[in-house]
Design brief:
- The protein is built from eight helices and eight strands.
- The protein has about 260 residues and is of the alpha/beta class.
- It has a single domain, classed as Rossmann fold (3-Layer(aba) Sandwich), CATH 3.40.50.
- The protein has an eight-stranded mixed β-sheet, with helices on both faces.
Amino acid sequence: MRIAALSLAFLLAAVSLAQAEIKTKVIKYEVGDQTYDGYLAYDDSIEGKRPGVLVFHEWWGLNGYAKERTRMLAEKGYVAFAADMYGGGKFVEHPKDAGAMAGKVRANVAEWQKRAVAALDILRGQPQCNPSELAAIGYCFGGSTALELAYTGADLKAVATFHAALPTPTEEQAKAIKAKLLVCNGAADGFVSKESIAAFKEKLEEAGDDLTFVNFPGAVHSFTVKDAGKHNNPGMQYNQAADEKSWAMLMELLKTQLGSKE
């Protein structure tokens, strides 16, 4: 009898796991005359609406890493949408190509913000998403994008960045921020200057924004990306301790600001 009971328990557990499946799909949307291919992920075993998290990719484009983080958020009970900031779901492998694409976007801040706002609107409109419980996160160029979205006064409850450049907001932009901010920075990141950090902090402090800024000792750029070392650049390396700690801090931020149906 005990063996039969255990077998039944294992069977029920297997059925439960099979039912809790992460669904993903590409969502095409337009900004101006260009088409973008975003990536949606959610747990279809969860009933009703749940908080939404917008994910902004690194300067490489909407590659496998950004999609992996999007699925990880879905596994935690959120509906997550990875924005496409370049169009056509494009991504590249060479740093020069990535720098050129990111630089082109950064050169026109109004267009940069417009693309970010459009992606937030796509997430907000998903049937699984609670439009009043939204957050945005981003890595590298994507972290800067998440900040630019916050500077528009977007209705976000939380924003988190990882090894991101920190564009200095104007006084008006800093006052427009509604989200609680978490900035995860590598203390040894040569791509993010001390001067830019100081200017960023000063503007947010003057505006009374809720900022948690964390410097991870010894961490350089791309510290959350496991294969960052493939580019043979000592300034871009994975740091397991910083990766795991920053992810745990993100989970706590989302839990306190949004809640979860996990």
